[in-house]
Amino acid sequence: MNQTKRKGRRPLVAQNREMTEPVLPGPGATDYERYLRTDELLSLQKRPEERSHPDELMFQIVHQSSELLLKGAANELDCAREAISEGDYVRAVKLMDRAFRMFDPAIDLLHVLGTLTPYEYHIIRAGLGHGSGLDSPGFIALLHLAPRLGQAFFDQLDNTGITVEEMYRRNREFIALHEVAEKLLDFDERVQLFRFHHMKLAHRIIGADVLGTTGRSVDILRQRQEHVLYKELWEARNEITGIVNARSKMEEQGHGRN
Which alpha helices (H) appear in 86-216, and where do they start and end? Predict the structure, then answer.
């Protein structure tokens, strides 16, 4: 009976082999490697004999990883922009949260670079040509996307006919739009954090008085770090505090109620 049941079936070893043999085209021993193109990805770093310093592998991996993470974050934020324009605020918030989960590790990776000593960095730096972290295509993509993301939000705010202050005051009524506004501030803070840690990294590694073609690197980074993306959302805090303080003062004087 058992022998009859087994007739026509391929041996288990053969079945397992079929399940592990790659079916996708390209180099690589497995479909995982072929899909992710790991052969190509892992060959993008210098070979040991090409490195100017043993830490150059870390230096390349940190920057390459950051560019991938920032590219992913920019893609999610662009999708969030489309969702905001369509009024799908729940999806927009989800996409922005996903973007932040990629942006945060890119910020953390700056601390890995901080483990280099100044002399180690300058040995590696000699092979970078005119390269600079300020030229990061991933970070530049986020900066180019930021105003478009903000415009999508403010267009929707204008459609409701309310101001930023009213949105915060009536946040329960406009909770979905309020949540998008808060996510924009989360994004703005992360951009500032990235710039701050980049500035401190430059200060720690190359010093504060090094002159470049456009001035002192640390000064340039400091100026950029102080810039905010969504000034109107930040200024609303001043307006709200002013309103509350004025109201409190009136109440203290006995004029707060009719």
Answer: 89-113, 118-125, 137-160, 164-169, 175-206
Q: Is residue 154 part of a domain?
A: yes
Mean pLDDT, the chain, rounded, equals 88
CA distance linking residue 177 with residue 154, whole number of Å? 10
The predicted-structure confidence for 146-205, as pLDDT tens digits, reads as follows: 999 999 999 999 999 999 999 999 999 999 999 999 999 999 999 999 999 998 998 899
pTM: 0.84
For the chain, the domain total comes to 1
Please report whether residue 247 resides in a domain: yes
Q: Is residue 61 included in any domain, yes or no?
A: yes
Contacts of 32 (CB under 8 A, 6+ apart): 38
Does residue 257 fall inside a structural domain?
A: no
